[in-house]
Each structure stands twice: as structure tokens, then as C-alpha cells.
Amino acid sequence: MDLYKKFHISIGSNIGDKLENIQSSLDLIHSRIACFTAISSVYESESIGFDGNDFYNICASFKSNKSPYYIMQQLLAVEEILGRNRNNEKKYVSRIIDIDIILIENLTIDSEELKVPHKEMCNRRFVLEPLIEIDPNLIHPINKISLKEIYNSFKQDQKIKRTDLILNNPSSLLPIIKYNYIAVEGNIGSGKTSLSKQISADFNTKLMLERFIDNPFLAKFYKNPKEFAFKLEMSFLADRYQQTSEDLSQLNLFNQNIISDYDIHKSLIFSKINLNLDEFNLYRKLFYSLYNSIVKPDLIIFLNQTIKNLKSNIKKRGREYEASISDEYLTNINKSYSDFFKSRPDLNVKFIDVSEMDFVKNRLDYLSIINQID
Question: Which of 151, 197, 215, 371 is the most exposed place for a label (fewest CB within 10 A)?
Fold first, then answer.
């Protein structure tokens, strides 16, 4: 799956150190599933359907491109790690931890394993209040009524109060959040786009992806490099300049961080390989005439990959025009990047070796990358 969806979950506890139980569940979800885009205040509510201690409850949201069933299994695993086993429970009992998927955008699921939206959400003030707190404009995907309207018409007498207790969002401690504009760079097939999408989803940033698919010269270049190299590089430069000028002009206007799967210097690096000397000298003059007006990234993350892994990734994505890319061409690109960054100590570049990682499938590999950013 490639499309990221927003999940809203509810977490509660009424046994032991209730606040610590919830914090531990947040930490585990962060390390196993996704970073939280929002976490509500802690609410205290009475037990419903049985006699037990009052619960602490919260709602939280995150984005993921994993299937709802995978997310559900991961949440159940978090419960088990914290000491809960649903198989041994009656319907209503005290719980060390209780985690439920409440909403997944407009998605509806009605199976034995999972029901979304949660069938009891509209009957639970301890779900509606924290949910509205973190996402006040939510609409129920089945009855098409706003959660605010559902809450305002709520008639059941359920005791609940908002507390001053504090929970930590694990991602708020990560240095990556201090950067307004991050560009992910690397060779062809290094995983730039995949990493950019994941960071954008986890940290709720604007995503700027290179529009290579719209370039009419790309496929022609791989068939006939000499004839189409200059046209290709000029069209890429024009498009990158337009895109960065338009998207980055909003950086301060909307106070939103941006993650991109390329840096404008990519144009200079690739053109040096693809163009002859006269063409490159002309190209470089044009590049620097445009460069001064472009907002520069606060951080460039460079993904180091082996040629073997690059070729494997290129093959997996199945673009016919990339089938002819040689080891020599990829090696030249690596060298060109290396030479360029050595000549530009003014740029803030973080080199990360991902040759032994699978940060798309392995959450811990992904977090290893994030934790290397300082």
C-alpha cells in the first residue's frame, strides 16, 4: 500500500499506574507503527457496564499506509506486551490497557475481526470528547453527521472530566522537528521518495515530490543520451525551479514544514554527468542565475546505497526506461554527489548509510534514520 490514511485510536486504563500504562502504549505504538500527529488531554471517566476504578482515557491520531488489519494486530501486540490478553476476558472488565481503532478517515469496515468506525463510539463521551479535542471537524463516515453534533445531542449520563495530567508525544523529542525544510537526496533508487513520504506522514509536513513522470524527455534520454541530455536537463531545471518557487513560497506564509525528495542542486549534479563541457558551462550559468532566488533547505539527508541495492530497487519499481541504467552510470552519479558536497561545506548535509536497512518495511530501520538526525 502507498496511500497514507489517518487513524484515530482510543486508549484507556483503569488498573495500576494508569498514566504510565498509557504513556507506555504511546511509546510502543511510536516504535512499532507510526509517529503521533496528535494526542489529546487525559480524561478521567467512570467505568461503564461494570464496577471498577475510574479510567484514564485519551484519543490520538497517526498516519500509516499499512492495512487496517495489520495496524489492529500491532495494537493488540502492544496490549499483550503491557500485560493484557483479550482472549481471557469477559466483555466488561477492568483493563491495564485498552486500545481501539475508532476511525480511519471515511473508511468503513464490517468484519468479524474489525469494525470501523467503532460501533460504540457515539455512545461514549470518553471517546467523543478527546476525539473532538484533537480533530474538531470530524464527520461520522456512516451517518454523515459531525461528531460535535453527535456530542451535543448526547443524553446519557456519563461522568467525565478533563485532567491536567501530561503525556509525552515521543516524536516531540526528536531533533528532526526543528527543521523547516528538509530535502532527501541520493542516487537513483536509493529510496528518497519512500523516506520523504514516511517523514511527511509521521510529522504532518507538506510533501514536495519531484514531477519526473511528466518529463517528456526522460524515456528518450535513456534511449539516446547524447541527443536528449540537454533538453532533459533544461526541462528538469525549469520544472524544479517552478515547483520549488511555488511550494516554498508558502513555507513562511502557512508556517508549515516541508519535506522534499530532491534538492535543486540535483540539477547541477546530474547535468555535469550528462552534458558535454560547453553545454554544462552554459547550463551552470543559468542554474546560478535562478538559484539565488530559491529557498535553501535547512537540512539535506543523503542516503548512501550500494550499487547492488540501487539496481535491485530500480528493477522492483519496474520503469521500462530505467532498465538500461548501467552500474557505471550509477557509480558516476555517486561520485558526482560526493565531489559536489565536498566542494560545498556551507550546506548542512547528513550522510546516512542505508545499505543494510529496509526502512520501508522495517519500522526500527526507519527510526534509526530519524534518530541519526541531530
Answer: 371
